[in-house]
TrEMBL record:
PROSITE patterns, per database record: ABC_TM1 (PS50928)
Superkingdom classification of source: Bacteria
Family: Belongs to the binding-protein-dependent transport system permease family.
Localization annotation: Cell membrane
SUPFAM superfamilies referenced in this protein's UniProt entry, alphabetically: MetI-like (SSF161098)
Organismal lineage: Bacteria, Pseudomonadati, Pseudomonadota, Alphaproteobacteria, Rhodobacterales
BP GO terms, sorted: amino acid transport; transmembrane transport
Residue spans crossing the bilayer: 44-66, 78-99, 181-200, 220-244
Name of protein: Histidine transport system permease protein HisM
Membrane topology term: Multi-pass membrane protein
Keyword Cell membrane among UniProt keywords: yes
Secretion signal, residue range per the UniProt entry: none
GO cellular component, one term: plasma membrane
Gene3D superfamilies: MetI-like
Encoding gene, per UniProt annotation: hisM
Organism encoding this protein: Maliponia aquimaris
Length: 268
């Protein structure tokens, strides 16, 4: 079997397209690269949707924690405390068995026991808590002069938030939020090693890397391949977030603009 045939058979296997059975022998480098890459589809799916949806909840949580209303403030504080204070692996475990219990009550919750929805909800809530704390710190760091200038120009309410508060908060929080995005994509490797099962062996990249490591008794091939894929994903995130960071800082003088940099440290 050529490498092209392997790509056609296993390139989309993780989402149910292509060869149904996993290879049982002849674990070539091409098969390992293709199948682990196929599993990355799930990692990108979980990371992208959790990050996009969590961004808006994180903004609401940050505003809630900084609100004068004690109910909104305490609800945001406890939300952040619970999801930052407990390990993500345990959150997956408890969420799966909670959804399993709800499934026995009503078939409506059947989809929640599948990783595509249940694990996504856990990642969404987890990143919202971490990002909410980042945004809250940035909210407190907004210069008072900016807010006073907004008041002087007659900005108030939604207009003040949209034009002054929110853009400044994002600009201050963006470097730390970029790190959270990277950590979130790395955390997606826990999905199929927690309570959520890989239906018909359709797992993520780590699932397939572990499969090859078990079958070949050689972890020094599949795991470096897995690391290579995540390094590529990290570079893409740094590039995209760097463009957004440049956009957020476009009004600042060139010499004071914050830039996202990746420095290769050969010696720590």
């Amino acid at each position: 079997m050529s490498c092209w045939d392997t790509l056609m058979d296993y390139g989309l296997r993780s989402i149910g397209i292509g060869e149904r059975l996993l290879p049982r022998d002849d674990f070539t480098l091409c098969k390992q690269v293709v199948l682990i890459g196929s599993g990355m589809i799930w990692n990108v799916y979980f990371g992208t949707l959790a990050l996009l949806s969590g961004f808006f909840l994180a903004t609401a949580v940050a505003l809630g924690k900084g609100a004068a209303n004690p109910v909104a403030r305490k609800a945001s504080e406890w939300f952040i405390f619970v999801f930052r204070g407990s390990p993500l692996f345990i959150q997956f475990f408890f969420a799966y068995f909670a959804f399993l219990s709800l499934k026995s009550v009503s078939p409506v919750f059947d989809a929640f026991t599948a990783a595509w929805l249940g694990a996504l909800i856990v990642l969404f809530l987890n990143t919202s808590a971490y990002s909410g704390e980042i945004f809250y710190g940035a909210l407190l760091s907004i210069p008072k002069g900016d807010m006073e200038a907004a008041d002087a120009y007659g900005f108030s309410g939604w207009k003040k938030f949209r034009k002054i508060t929110w853009p400044t908060m994002l600009r201050l929080a963006w470097p730390a939020y970029t790190n959270e995005a990277i950590f979130l994509f790395h955390a997606t490797t826990l999905v199929f090693f927690s309570g959520f099962p890989a239906w018909q062996q359709r797992g993520d990249a780590l699932y397939y890397a572990s499969y090859f490591a078990d079958k070949t008794f050689n972890p020094f091939v599949p795991y470096p391949i897995l690391a290579g894929y995540f390094i590529l994903v990290t570079l893409v995130i740094i590039g995209l977030f760097g463009l957004i960071n440049r956009r957020l800082n476009r009004h600042l003088p060139q010499d004071v603009r914050g830039r996202l940099k990746m420095r290769m440290n050969l010696i720590r």
